[in-house]
Amino acid sequence: MVAQALLAGEETELVRKAIELAKAGDVQMLKFLLDRLLPKERLIKIDIPRIDFSDQAIDGMAAINRAIAEGQITPSEGAALSQTISGYSRAIEVWDLSRRIEDIEESLKPKDEK
């Protein structure tokens, strides 16, 4: 709070000085300003259908492609979302195969072991 009180009314002058230093070649100040001004990531909202089975990932990928085509998200954001859906889809497939193997193993047991 004390620092804020001391800086009250000085913000514009300080920002101008920072810009002046960056323009004069102060690399540290240039990095500082760019780190603060350029967005690193942003929250995106698109409608991706629920994915309960791996084949439903196609609908999710289609939603991502539509969002890219409409300019709602960037291609790199779409790639990151696609990787997430792909990983989730693979996890569903592994779970499904594991469950099927367990069912087969159970069905192969002699009746007295069940």
Uncertain residue segments:
none
Shape: elongated
Query: Count of DSSP helices?
Result: 5
In terms of structural class, how would the helical and strand content be classed? mainly alpha
Distance between the termini: 71 Å
Q: Percent helix among the residues?
A: 55-70%
Overall description:
This protein is mostly helical and 114 residues long. The protein has two domains: 2-37, no CATH class; 54-113. Helices cover 68% and strands 0% of the residues. The protein has five helices and no strands. Helix 4 (57-69) packs antiparallel against helix 5. The relative contact order is 0.07. The mean pLDDT is 90.
Please sum up the structure shown.
This protein has 114 residues and is mainly α. The protein has helices at 2-7, 11-23, 27-37, 57-69, 75-108. It folds into 2 domains: 2-37, no CATH class; 54-113.
Question: What is the strand and helix layout of this fold?
Answer:
Blueprint: H1 2-7, H2 11-23, H3 27-37, H4 57-69, H5 75-108
Helix pairs in contact: 2-3, 4-5
Distinctive features:
114 residues; mainly alpha; 2 domains
